[in-house]
Inverse folding.
């Protein structure tokens, strides 16, 4: 198993949620590995090489799930590669070990300690690590209250002399359930939710609960599947989209029309040009500047593009009050998504 070196912060914008949990404000998301096309050995080798590139360029936090196809298994192969062939980095003479974040996404049912521990041990075996830095729990059916049992057992696993889990987070829990869980189980570190310039639901009730219990958000969908990009300025609604892009296009159209989205893109392009960055950088920094946001998850496009240097520019983009006022003026022309979709995570239930 990969051993920890003493912790240090090699990057300027590293956030610390606890003495044993810190990571850069941009995380690498392994959602794309849910696709069957990543099962071929050649593709797996290419993915491992990409993971090594992210890692040696300072993107040391990796987000996956037990339901993301072979993601945990491929991550384990990446961890093994670091032991046999440690990469060098221009950032430091040595890098901290990767921050391993996965999700526990069980079908509703018996959530005894035996069931929960077995699921965690299965993830550990696939990931080739001694413990999970942050396990993020998701539950499909709020009417089945055994989600409280699962979180309580995960908390017990953090208290062992040699814990299998260091910290607990949640995934796509709404504000009411987040408050319920936090009132019963201490030290819930994070909640992973969709958050973007388009989908600002986490700025409402969710923010108040996060502040009350010192929970930070890990956000996905911040780039709307790549639709928040210069390439779509002046273009009609795109065709032949990936499932991810279809989802975010629907979110955009639930918020407003394609014409309104074009107005937003033109504004974001002007702001990006002023700050010498990209629309994606502006979109990312809009979310990162929220005090209850810990990090944005950048969905890796393995074998397609990495954009590592471009992504880091998000941290350097300092949006002005004038920039934000202009963005908010266009946001207010659209619908409030909490009135259309519901609270954070409601789209999954």
């Amino acid at each position: 198993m990969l051993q920890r070196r003493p912790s240090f912060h090699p990057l300027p914008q590293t956030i610390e949620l606890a003495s044993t949990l810190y990571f850069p404000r941009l995380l690498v998301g392994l959602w794309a590995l849910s696709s069957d096309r990543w099962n071929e050995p050649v593709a797996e080798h290419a993915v491992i090489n990409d993971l090594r590139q992210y890692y040696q360029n300072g993107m040391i936090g990796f987000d996956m799930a037990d339901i993301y196809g072979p993601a945990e298994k491929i991550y384990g192969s990446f961890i093994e590669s670091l032991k046999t062939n440690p990469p060098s980095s221009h950032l430091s003479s040595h890098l901290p070990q990767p921050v391993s974040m996965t999700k526990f996404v069980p079908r509703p049912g018996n959530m005894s300690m035996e069931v929960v521990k077995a699921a965690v041990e299965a993830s550990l075996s696939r990931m080739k690590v001694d413990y999970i830095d942050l396990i993020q729990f998701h539950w499909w059916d709020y009417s089945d209250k055994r989600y409280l049992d699962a979180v309580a057992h995960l908390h017990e696993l953090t208290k062992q002399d040699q814990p299998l889990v260091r910290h607990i987070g949640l995934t796509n829990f709404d504000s009411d359930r987040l408050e319920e869980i936090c009132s019963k189980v201490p030290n819930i570190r994070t909640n992973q939710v969709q958050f973007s310039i388009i989908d600002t639901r986490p700025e409402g009730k969710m923010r108040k609960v996060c502040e009350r219990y010192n929970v930070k958000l890990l956000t996905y969908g911040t780039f709307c599947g790549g639709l928040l990009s210069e390439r779509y300025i002046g273009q009609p609604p795109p065709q032949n989209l990936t499932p991810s892009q279809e989802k975010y296009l629907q979110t955009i159209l639930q918020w407003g029309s394609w014409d309104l989205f074009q107005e937003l893109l033109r504004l974001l392009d002007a702001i990006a040009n002023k700050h010498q960055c990209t629309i994606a950088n502006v979109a990312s920094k809009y979310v990162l500047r929220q005090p209850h946001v810990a990090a944005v998850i950048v969905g890796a496009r393995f074998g397609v593009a990495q954009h590592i240097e471009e992504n880091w520019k998000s941290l350097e983009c300092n949006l002005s009050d004038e920039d934000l006022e202009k963005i908010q003026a266009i946001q207010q022309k659209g619908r409030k998504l909490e009135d259309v979709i519901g609270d954070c995570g409601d789209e999954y239930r």
User: Anything to note?
Assistant: The chain is about 40% helix and 15% strand. The first strand starts at residue 14 and ends at 18.
